[in-house]
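Dear Dr. K.,

Following up on our conversation at the group meeting, I've run the structure prediction for AIR synthase family protein from Promethearchaeum syntrophicum. I'm pasting the input sequence below exactly as I used it, so you can double-check it against your construct before we proceed with anything downstream. Let me know if the numbering doesn't match what you have in your notebook.
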Amino acid sequence: MPRFPPGKLPMSFMEKIIEKYLNPDKKLESGRKIIFGPHAGQDVAVIDIGDKYLVTKSDPITFTSESIGSYVVNINANDIVTSGAKPIGFQPTVLLPENKTDEILVDTIFSDMRTKCDEFGITITGGHTEITVGLDRPIICGMMWGEVKKEDLITTFGGKPGDALILTKGIAIEGSYIISKEKEKDLIQHNFNPQLIKNCQNLLNSPGISIVKEAQLLHGNFTVHAMHDPTEGGLAMGIVEMAQNSNCGVMLDYSTIPLISGTEELCKFYELDPFGLIASGALLVAVPKENVGQIVSFLNKNNIQAAEIGNLTKNHGIFSVKYDNGEIKPLKYSPIDEITKIY
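The predicted structure tokens came back this morning:
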């Protein structure tokens, strides 16, 4: 039987697994109702707790161990805020490598987690830490939750045909950062511009992989039909997940999609598709077409780069890209992230 490669499992297979084993009863023993349970392309679960919804999320850091403490808080908080919720609590499972773990490593990880949680007003309520056999680097699996007013919930299911797609910052912040850190020696040996490497290694901080600010600004000031945090599989996979869940198709304008400085050079060298490169740090939003100008202007005034990159269509399941020469081609996408090719 064929083995799966690193990265996300195929959506079609995961949908079968969810249907077979993970489709929860719609009511818990407490009587609380599950509004959204496991679903491909929907990164949070939503539970009715009375006058509000409880929003829960889990996500690991596996591709890199650099700044892993703040990293894991950021990527979990990103998904909480894309639902319209405010992050409240966090519980990490910290798995540390044998023969490589000392007090300095542990202190650094927890100091970084504490600092990032304090920035977002999140309480660390518990977790688990151990030395794990077989690891060559730390891995942290985070679990986070938040709350949202029922009328303010946002999901990947709310997009509508004709909605404009807005992307903040650009692609691929996280992927370019990982490549510059994990392949630094290789890049230097191949005479890459040292300043380009340095700039990419700073992407974790500037513009950063957090989308908390822009997500909160948007759902606090505008009508938003759907939000998504494109991660593994890159922008392409994130767009397909949102479109499929919203029963829409997609038409993208290639010329409008912003690339982070350094991404094109790194992708060309390692023969990677930037559209499929892990893209944390960018926020994908579906909004009414008539509000695009106001939203982009608002974000820019708040020092957040934003661009309209296409729109959702009524052609469910058809995902297309229009290029500068007017040619229209199918959007290439895969759950297997391009970053796996560098290892």
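Two things stood out to me. The longest helix spans residues 103-120. The CA atoms of residues 18 and 38 lie 7 Å apart.

Best regards,
J.T.
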